[in-house]
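INFO batch 0412 | record 1 of 1 | parsing
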Amino acid sequence: MKELTTHAVILAGGRGTRFWPRSRTRTPKQLLNIVGKDTMLEQTVARLRPLIPAERIWTVTNSEQAAAVRKQVSAAARRRVLTEPVGRNTAAAIALAAIHVRDAALGDALLAVLPADHYIEQAEKYRKIVTAALNMAREPGRMVVLGIPPTRPETGFGYVERTGEPITAKGFPVFAVRRFTEKPELRIAQEYVASGNYHWNAGMFFWRVSTFLENLKALLPKTYAALEELTESIGTRSYDRKLHAIYPKLENISVDSAILEPATRAEGWPRVFVIPAEVGWSDIGSWAAVYELLAKKAGENVLAADGYALDAEGNFLWSPAKFVAAIGVRDLVVVETPDALLICPRDRAQDVGKIVKWLEEQRRKDLL
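INFO prediction complete | emitting tokens
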């Protein structure tokens, strides 16, 4: 089998509205040091570097965030930052990266597609699983996803249902995927967790560039045709003009819905595989999730800097420039920036995005 170079595509275009007031349009969650000293994007790149050289790490973002993204990646990876003129969901973003990788690789290549803003505690084990996934994806037509063993009946995640007996790749079990399901209601999520056959869909995908583009051609032919037209201008002066003309016309759909779900029903099944990945994963979806990661024991107060809590417990207090004193409060999230202050119960942290929506309605661009 022909030796293929391996590339990574990091999807870094989200807004991270549930991390307001720190997360803003130009500096969203993935560009912030939410957990640890490095930003989420920097941590994602650092996890990959032992496997993939910087010149083969591509980042897809938008025009508002592109400058900040370039500052956070190495000089070699800076040349691989791709800018979407408008958001068109993950199928288009991955397709844009795929045609660029094909051009740079002068043909086919292996592709790892990863979110920019997830936390993974066990980086070394994660890299071993990624290696196994890439090895499985070498076979033409195969698509591989990482599935997170669920720890609770979560209604905010998509699920991957596995089926059959596992095969082994690099020492890890690999299962055929029966289907993908989106954010179930609580009763269904409880059944999923109890069955042991479902995993959270972490949005980490592995395939050949040719495999992805063949599926794109069959399932999203208009997007495929438009991007094939764009391919001819890569590296030329006309590229930006053509990108801005073509990209808004692409279908606005997730890669899960457009490619992966239909592939589980196509001829030649199984074509999609899942590798369980118990690696200390979190999508860090809210300030409450940050608290859960940082608190070493139940009821502990987590402070960003100097402070004192009297008869207070379970609080997340982020005000790095000020001494914080908390008295008699329980399970709060407090996040301060120079121009805004967020105060909410920890169990309402998922609603922070509603504040951003209200600010948009009020046209408060100074706070967005």
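INFO post-check: The longest helix spans residues 89-105.
INFO record closed
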